[in-house]
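Pasting as-is:
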Amino acid sequence: MRDSAQLAKFLVDIRDAVARIRQVLPADAEAFAADRTVREVVVLNLFVALQDCLSIATHRLAELRLDVPPAYRGVFTALGERGLVSRDLAHRLAAASGLRNLIAQRYGVLDLKRIHEIAYTQLDDLLAFCDEIERAP
């Protein structure tokens, strides 16, 4: 991103969101489902982190004068195809973009067990994205 201050802010916000999730997330999915405050902290911070990843990705594609796909899933895939992040990471983040849409659009009741699983097992993908973006030319 040309605006290095904005990029730095996005990266700090993603890392902070991951830290907040880890700070409150119980290991047990039932405990997660039973605590509304914890659920709200986790869901909000997942949304913030995913949205900031998408913002970085779309800005990066536009900056390189590449087509920005209309669907969020395609934004991450395009980064992977162009070597701006690893293909495996791009694939995982493309799948995660669907969660961002579910949260943002409230397409239905969120599957709390699935949210817990994602928060418990996939936060490292968000941090890996930050690291790979920082290393990208």
